[in-house]
Amino acid sequence: MARFSPLEWPVFRQFSSPDKLGRGEAVMSRRTREIAPRTSTADRVVQSVCPYCAVGCGQKVFVKDERVVQIEGDPDSPISRGRLCPKGSASEQLVNSASRQTEILYRAPHATDWRRLSLDEATDMIADRFIESRRRWWEDADEHGRPLRRTMGIAALGGATLDNEENYLIKKLFTAAGAIQIENQARI
To answer: Alpha-carbon Rg of the chain, whole angstroms?
Structure first.
């Protein structure tokens, strides 16, 4: 370890340089001068929208070697003007977390173990169950013959991470399928 010199003391550098208030080079350590922000080494910057709530704050996603290295607020966004809440600021962890689930896991009824599924297999399983529930619980008319054209076997609960367009399409899908129990977390 190098021997400390009083000349390297930040207060001495501050008073012996033009930086009398200690807001610049005088108080920076060698380590601070050598480091560079992660954003300066990014291969590209992708504009995105924060996934956490329905506000739709703009984000700049910095990508290096096809991996997200930093996410910051987008100053060009008319909604957030470059600002992000604490969750939005930490959304890089959503992508790079070591505990992030990257596989579809399925546990059959009464089973004790999880089984890995392909995306196609899981999608087909969901579609089959959706269609079967609609068919099984379909009510075409009530006891007086009045048309109902609905199913009580399907319900939808949306989340606040969806934007208006996604909620609109989900509402249309479930209404077209005959579901009447459609709700969104933002209204609860």
So the answer is: 27
Q: Regarding the domain delimited by 38-96, which CATH topology (the fold level of the hierarchy) does it fall under?
A: N-terminal domain of TfIIb (2.20.25)
3-state secondary structure string across the chain: CCCCCHHHCHHHHHHCCCCCCCCCHHHCCHHHHHCCCHHHHCCEEEEEECCCCCCCCEEEEEEECCEEEEEEECCCCCCCCCCCCHHHHCCHHHHHCCCCCCCEEECCCCCCCCEEECHHHHHHHHHHHHHHHHHHCEEEECCCCCEEEEEEEEEEEECCCCCHHHHHHHHHHHHHCCEEEEEEHHHC
pTM, two decimal places: 0.57
pLDDT digits (tens, 9 = 90+) for 112-126: 999 999 999 999 999
Each residue of 31-82: pLDDT tens digit? 877 888 878 888 899 999 888 877 889 999 999 998 899 999 999 999 989 9
Looking at the chain, which residues constitute the CATH 2.20.25.90 domain(s)?
Answer: 38-96
- Nearest in space to 137 (alpha carbons), one of 153, 154, 148, 155: 153
